[in-house]
């Protein structure tokens, strides 16, 4: 039963082949059995999952239908869940029980989805290896010595290991697409403003966006359908109708113009990955796509700009974790300054502290113009590059990551090397564009992802192309040994 | 050495919106601690702000009223600092692109001259909560009811040259925001608070001296005292060979002194940057037009109209126009009595001192505008004299009814029958035969003084009801005759 995709589950539940309770019980048992190897969950909500499954079965018995009714999934542990610990992978929030549901959580619950728990993540979503979690590193099911990517590494590892069919994630610089690539999943980062950020604990507000991780584009369409939409509680949410993503999956991609940015295939890209990407391009050409080379000249500036803007926003967003109202508070503070200093020094991990320091520095008087304003200018240039490119092409294609998953601990002493892993994904966040990563093959037994980027609100086009590709390839159906 | 004082003010006005600037919580004053604090006000992880349109409308109203450029593209920014009553670790404010740009306000000084004070800008921001240090032994309590209350911070140019001018400016702002209905102006509850930037320089010097900022002064009287005290401190310091250091200071009204809080070097670096959770606010022309259409007649226009229409002095006109309630009261009294100067005098002097004594505002006056107008009408039609009117006024203040009812009940109607007055005078003169003799023997200068004695006696004898003018005329005839 654990091999079923969301789409297959929807059919099975509709055909009464099994109940949501049966499915949920089976997956909970699988999590209990296998997750100790992976560490992909921070909290498993067995009791509430079974209650939700029961309620979904009752709704279905009463005549209700819906693709997500009774479908099991899990939330990255930065989506607030009422009455359930929401830790953000941090000691700071280890004791934090959210008093409300994030909009994404509430929408999926209303659609009848069953939440099995909260998945592990890099602390406050800062990282691309899922090694910075207070709850320990997450292992890649394809090779337990390797990282699953991050920051949505728990969601990715759990779905890749067939502990559940799909999970929510968030993507600030690649945190959905990169772990999807490293674990052989399909992961979509929607247009900024497509999915509400209400209740999603902020890392970098102008870049953060929630989205689905699943094994197929078809499943991503189903999950995104349940997540997307305008939310008056999020001022950056966009009031734009949500199309039926499943309805256009079958559209022909004949004549689709795909741009290959030459900057994505330059030095730094593992040649074995380059080969797989070109192979995927060939597949799309067979389906009728037309390919041309394009240029995104400002891409080289993306990482420096991102590592100013994201930490700057984070330094402010994380100020609320001060030991006063919620979260970790140090023992016996001497005075107010001591309370702040020790609560934050003891509650935040090293990478979070690094980024707060970098961000506070970039915003300081005398440095603001040189760093923050400069980074915002680069951001505009990068956006302009994309706008110009989309005059000529419908989609942009390239590798999701320059390398396959690395060994746990391999980049611990070289944060810049880890930062460079985001080189292909970060631009979409800076420009606010939607992007998807889908499986494109393996290097040394480790998965490789191909990334597609589309104009604003063209998630449907991304899912359509990915689905068509997955109809003619089988990379996405491969299962890691032992799972 | 002659010193010149330079003052600029930052006034924080709490906008009178029903709900907070970025959340739906109520803004009522005085509720039990933390009963008006939502998830957003608590700065819970994952919450987001949504701008209250009413706060924008109120800020625009203010901008239009001071003839300012409206920031049609204005931006909220985060001001980052740690404090227990600042839940998010930053205050949402405006920095580079405020909602209200350069404007000005005319103030009337005591000598009637009008001075134009420049307003640099006004921006929207959220208020912080309150730290409570009493009632918690060894701990502090935090009340977040006030956190997120909308504030409009109004920053003036350093245009004021005395504490009196500063107070006149604050009063003018106070009147204006109340006129506009955007702030209740209740200074005791902190609805209008003032930071005073004060410096001194030798008279004639072009550049400003080093300034100190006195934080959070919350009454007109304290503003005047705090500024004067600080000016004195700075002058003494410089004259003793010292130097003023740029500082933030606090005024202690009990000791009538200002104390240093922190110096410029210790000042926070607030690391302002545009708030990524809020989009830029775009104010289109249609919004400006509809808001402009809701503006009431404002103090300067009202003052000018009072002068032109009623022939009042500039000072009287500006006092009466200083609050909307007082101006409305005055106009109602004029409407009934028909005598604007008389109405102005009674509203400012007699009513003013009554309200002062009872410690109430004019909208809670024990004597209504209709009552006062009715009484003044009886003065103008000679039913009662000005002196009797004071008795009637007192009776109205005691709740004894309308002027006519009181005049009737107490028999206070003025005696204008010259036969009756003549009889009273004859009786009085007979009783004071000795003084009459002296009067007749006296020279012109002395007679003038003595005449007053007879008028007094006559009024006393008539219980104040005799028409004073008639008493004068008849008495003159009788004494001369």
From TrEMBL, chain A:
Superkingdom as given in the UniProt entry: Bacteria
Record GO biological process: translation
Keyword check for Methyltransferase: no
Protein biosynthesis is among the record's keywords: yes
InterPro entries with a match to the protein in the record: Amidase, Amidase_CS, Amidase_dom, AS_sf, GatA
Annotated active site: 76 (charge relay system), 151 (charge relay system), 175 (acyl-ester intermediate)
Keyword terms of this UniProt record: ATP-binding, Ligase, Nucleotide-binding, Protein biosynthesis
GO molecular-function term, one example from the UniProt record: glutaminyl-tRNA synthase (glutamine-hydrolyzing) activity
SUPFAM superfamilies tied to this protein: Amidase signature (AS) enzymes
EC number(s) on file: 6.3.5.7
GO CC terms: glutamyl-tRNA(Gln) amidotransferase complex
Reaction equation(s) it catalyzes: L-glutamyl-tRNA(Gln) + L-glutamine + ATP + H2O = L-glutaminyl-tRNA(Gln) + L-glutamate + ADP + phosphate + H(+)
Record family assignment: Belongs to the amidase family. GatA subfamily.
NCBIfam families: gatA (TIGR00132)
HAMAP family: GatA
Role: Allows the formation of correctly charged Gln-tRNA(Gln) through the transamidation of misacylated Glu-tRNA(Gln) in organisms which lack glutaminyl-tRNA synthetase. The reaction takes place in the presence of glutamine and ATP through an activated gamma-phospho-Glu-tRNA(Gln).
Stated name of the protein: Glutamyl-tRNA(Gln) amidotransferase subunit A
Source organism of the structure: Pseudomonas turukhanskensis
Protein's gene: gatA
From TrEMBL, chain B:
Entries under SMART domains matching the protein: GatB_Yqey
Any GO BP: translation
UniProt catalytic activity: L-glutamyl-tRNA(Gln) + L-glutamine + ATP + H2O = L-glutaminyl-tRNA(Gln) + L-glutamate + ADP + phosphate + H(+); L-aspartyl-tRNA(Asn) + L-glutamine + ATP + H2O = L-asparaginyl-tRNA(Asn) + L-glutamate + ADP + phosphate + 2 H(+)
Entry keyword annotation includes Signal: no
Segments forming domain Asn/Gln amidotransferase: 328-479
EC numbers, comma separated: 6.3.5.-
Top-level enzyme category: ligase
Keyword Protein biosynthesis applies: yes
Coiled coil feature spans: none
Cleavable signal peptide: none
Pfam families in alphabetical order: GatB_N, GatB_Yqey
GO MF annotations in UniProt: ATP binding; glutaminyl-tRNA synthase (glutamine-hydrolyzing) activity
Keyword line: ATP-binding, Ligase, Nucleotide-binding, Protein biosynthesis
Family of this protein: Belongs to the GatB/GatE family. GatB subfamily.
Job of this protein: Allows the formation of correctly charged Asn-tRNA(Asn) or Gln-tRNA(Gln) through the transamidation of misacylated Asp-tRNA(Asn) or Glu-tRNA(Gln) in organisms which lack either or both of asparaginyl-tRNA or glutaminyl-tRNA synthetases. The reaction takes place in the presence of glutamine and ATP through an activated phospho-Asp-tRNA(Asn) or phospho-Glu-tRNA(Gln).
Summary of subunit composition and partner proteins: Heterotrimer of A, B and C subunits.
Entry protein name: Aspartyl/glutamyl-tRNA(Asn/Gln) amidotransferase subunit B
């Amino acid at each position: 039963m654990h091999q079923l995709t969301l789409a297959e589950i929807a059919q099975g539940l509709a055909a009464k082949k099994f109940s949501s309770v049966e499915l949920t019980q089976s997956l909970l048992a699988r999590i209990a059995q296998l997750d100790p190897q992976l560490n992909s969950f921070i909290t498993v909500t067995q009791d509430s999952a079974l209650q939700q499954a029961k309620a979904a079965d009752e709704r279905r018995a009463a005549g209700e239908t819906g693709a997500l009714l009774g479908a099991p999934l899990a939330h990255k542990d930065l989506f607030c869940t009422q009455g359930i610990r929401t830790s953000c992978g941090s000691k700071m929030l280890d004791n934090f029980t959210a008093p409300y549901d994030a909009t994404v959580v509430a929408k999926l619950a209303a659609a009848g989805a069953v939440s099995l728990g909260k998945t592990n993540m890099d602390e406050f979503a800062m990282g691309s290896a899922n090694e910075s979690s207070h709850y320990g590193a997450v292992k890649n099911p394809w090779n337990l010595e390797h990282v699953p990517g991050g920051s949505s590494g728990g969601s990715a590892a759990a779905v890749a290991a067939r502990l559940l069919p799909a999970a929510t994630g968030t993507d600030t610089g690649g945190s959905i697409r990169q772990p999807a690539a490293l674990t052989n999943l399909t992961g979509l980062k929607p247009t900024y403003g497509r999915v509400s950020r209400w209740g999603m604990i902020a890392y970098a507000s102008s870049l953060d966006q929630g989205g689905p991780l699943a094994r197929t584009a078809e499943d991503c369409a189903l999950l995104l359908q349940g997540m997307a939409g305008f939310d008056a509680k999020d001022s950056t949410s966009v009031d734009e109708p949500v199309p039926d993503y499943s309805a256009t999956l079958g559209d022909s991609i004949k004549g689709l113009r795909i741009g290959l940015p030459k900057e994505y295939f330059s030095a730094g890209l593992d040649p074995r990955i380059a080969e797989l990407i070109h192979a995927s391009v060939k597949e799309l050409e067979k389906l009728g796509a037309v390919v041309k080379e394009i240029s995104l000249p400002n891409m080289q500036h993306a990482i420096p700009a991102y590592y100013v803007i994201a930490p700057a926003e984070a330094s402010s967003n994380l100020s609320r974790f001060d030991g006063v109202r919620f979260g970790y508070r140090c023992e016996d503070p001497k005075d107010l300054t001591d309370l702040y200093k020790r609560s934050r020094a003891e509650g935040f991990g090293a990478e979070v502290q690094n980024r707060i320091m970098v961000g506070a520095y970039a915003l300081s008087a005398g440095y603001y113009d040189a760093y923050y304003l400069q980074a915002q200018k680069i951001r505009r240039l990068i956006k302009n590059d994309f706008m110009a490119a989309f005059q000529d092409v419908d989609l942009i294609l390239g590798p999701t990551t320059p390398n396959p998953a690395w060994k746990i601990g391999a980049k611990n002493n070289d944060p810049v090397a880890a930062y460079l892993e985001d080189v292909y994904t970060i631009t979409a966040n800076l420009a606010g564009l939607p992007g998807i990563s889908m499986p494109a093959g393996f290097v040394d037994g480790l998965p490789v992802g191909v990334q597609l980027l589309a104009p604003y609100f063209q998630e449907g086009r991304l899912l359509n192309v990915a689905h068509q590709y997955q109809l003619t390839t089988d990379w996405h159906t491969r299962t890691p040994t032992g799972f | 050495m002659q010193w010149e004082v330079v003052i600029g003010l930052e006034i924080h006005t709490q906008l009178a919106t029903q709900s907070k600037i970025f959340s739906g919580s109520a803004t009522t004053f005085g509720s039990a601690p933390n009963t008006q604090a939502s998830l957003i006000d608590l700065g819970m992880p994952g919450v987001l702000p949504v701008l209250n349109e009413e706060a924008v409308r109120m800020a625009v109203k203010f901008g239009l009223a001071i003839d300012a450029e409206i920031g049609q593209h204005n931006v909220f920014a985060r001001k980052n600092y740690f404090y227990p009553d600042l839940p998010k670790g930053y205050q949402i404010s405006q920095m580079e692109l405020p909602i209200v740009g350069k404007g000005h306000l005319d103030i009337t000084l005591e000598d009637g001259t009008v001075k134009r004070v420049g307003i640099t800008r006004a921006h929207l921001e959220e208020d912080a909560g309150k730290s409570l240090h009493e009632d918690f032994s060894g701990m502090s309590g935090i009340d977040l009811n006030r956190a997120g209350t909308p504030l409009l911070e109004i920053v003036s140019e350093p245009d004021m040259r005395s504490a009196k001018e500063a107070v006149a400016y604050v009063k003018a702002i106070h009147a204006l925001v109340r006129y506009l209905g955007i702030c209740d102006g209740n200074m005791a509850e902190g609805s209008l608070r003032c930071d005073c930037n004060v410096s001194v320089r030798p008279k004639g010097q072009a550049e400003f001296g080093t300034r100190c900022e006195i934080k959070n002064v919350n009454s007109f009287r304290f503003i005047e005292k705090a500024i004067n005290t600080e000016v004195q401190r700075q002058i003494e310091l410089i004259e003793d060979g010292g130097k003023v250091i740029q500082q933030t200071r606090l005024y202690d009204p009990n000791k009538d002194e200002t104390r240093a809080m922190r110096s410029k070097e210790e000042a926070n670096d607030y690391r302002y940057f545009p708030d990524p959770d809020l989009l830029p606010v775009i104010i289109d022309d249609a919004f400006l037009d509809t808001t402009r259409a809701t503006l009431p007649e404002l103090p300067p226009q009202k003052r000018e109209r009072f002068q032109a229409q009623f022939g009042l002095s500039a000072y009287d006109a500006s006092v009466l126009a200083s609050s909307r309630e007082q101006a409305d009261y005055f106009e109602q009294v004029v409407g009934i009595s028909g005598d604007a100067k008389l109405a102005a005098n009674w509203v400012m002097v007699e009513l003013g001192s009554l309200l002062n004594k009872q410690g109430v505002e004019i909208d809670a006056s024990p004597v209504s505008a209709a009552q006062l107008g009715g009484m003044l009408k009886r003065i103008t039609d000679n039913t009662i004299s000005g002196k009797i009117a004071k008795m009637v006024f007192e009776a109205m203040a005691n709740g004894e009814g309308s002027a006519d009812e009181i005049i009737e009940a107490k028999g206070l109607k003025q005696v204008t029958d010259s036969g009756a007055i003549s009889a009273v005078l004859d009786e009085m003169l007979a009783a004071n035969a000795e003084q009459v003799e002296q009067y007749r023997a006296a020279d012109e200068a002395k007679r003038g003084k003595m005449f007053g004695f007879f008028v007094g006696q006559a009024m006393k004898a008539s219980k104040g009801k005799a028409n004073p003018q008639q008493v004068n005329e008849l008495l003159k005839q009788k004494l001369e005759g």
